[in-house]
Amino acid sequence: xxxxxxxxxxxxxxxxxxxxxxxxxxxxxxxxxxxxxxxxxxxxxxxxxxxxxxxxxxxxxxxxxxxxxxxxxxxxxxxxxxxxxxxxxxxxxxxxxxxxxxxxxxxxxxxxxxxxxxxxxxxxxxxxxxxxxxxxxxxxxxxxxxxxxxxxxxxxxxxxxxxxxxxxxxxxxxxxxxxxxxxxxxxxxxxxxxxxxxxxxxxxxxxxxxxxxxxxxxxxxxxxxxxxxxxxxxxxxxxxxxxxxxxxxxxxxxxxxxxxxxxxxxxxxxxxxxxxxxxxxxxxxxxxxxxxxxxxxxxxxxxxxxxxxxxxxxxxxxxxxxxxxxxxxxxxxxxxxxxxxxxxxxxxxxxxxxxxxxxxxxxxxxxxx
Length: 369
Ligand code: GDP
Prior knowledge:
The chain is of the alpha+beta class and 369 residues long. It has two domains: 48-222, 3-Layer(aba) Sandwich (Rossmann fold); 237-366, no CATH class. It contains eleven helices and 16 strands. The chain has a six-stranded mixed sheet with strand order 3-2-1-4-6-5, sandwiched between helices. A five-stranded antiparallel sheet has the order 7-10-14-13-16, with no helix packed on it. The chain has a five-stranded antiparallel sheet with strand order 11-8-9-15-12. Strand 2 (99-104), helix 5 and strand 3 (135-138) form a beta-alpha-beta unit. It is elongated and about 80 Å long. Bound molecules: guanosine-5'-diphosphate. Guanosine-5'-diphosphate binds at residues 104-105, 107-108, 140-142, 167, 169-175, 193-195, 200, 219. Residues 56-223 form the CP-type G domain. One of its GO terms (molecular function) is GTP binding.
């Protein structure tokens, strides 16, 4: 018979007639090598297109369709920006469908981390935010950790459902989907991943063997994250690339730490105690007296206290002061969305303040590690 050409990506017979059917290839692209259908072409190249992301409302509307069908939802969060990347409205939209929480970027945590303790912490936080999860998988898409476990969990839970992958921008969704594709389909090239927020276009369907699909949804832009506020050149500085090296500071009341020029932490009142900063190693910490902090910032923002540089400072919102009273008793973190956190090691309580660009989410939480 006639030799029907097949897509090198998904294996579907190539056709020029129906754009919404498998194997569609525009006639003018027929000569392209390797011969792949438009859908596979998009999967391979979509990240190179112009940046598009969606706001929360639009995203939740997109998600509306999940509740009405049998689906498995993989909700990816970034352990470095847990409260900033958690989709807290998710529960209302997924209906009774199972949700697997993939906690990504665990390679950033210190090697000595107690993973069981971390998993319990994640579980408690989810409960606090009203999120039900059928499974929590700690993973690193980058270092290929926890990935077998994730695939196993997906296989156990999926049945014959479609798999929706949801996440905020920059949580590693593309990196993870690359791994899924490598495992599930014949696409031999990877998607391009990108460091810049919002580079995933609208829903992308990745066909599975059984006629179901993995559906990659757009990254949600959450305006309260540092990663959405900084200019491109500074993103690589606030987002750690390597495992965090916790920095311990013994502080007396009346002392201040500057994290580059991104943020400032004041220890206003309390007994001498230690604070541990979990932030990107590329951000320099400057210690000074609280009474000198305003003047230091006024004189040296964008220079000694950088990044942001003088130029990128113009694009940053002014700082808001958050006064935070740390209770006595157990350990607490002061969490700054997308920048990291400061662990309060003492149990005597403390009065502190964080100065961060307006809009950045700052909160206290039980210590993560
Ligand atoms: P998306 O916007 O959610 O699709 O995220 P990407 O997959 O494009 O990743 C965003 C950034 O996070 C990139 O700089 C990735 O290299 C980085 N990244 C993704 N997964 C991991 C991970 O497991 N560990 C670390 N340290 N970085 C990761």
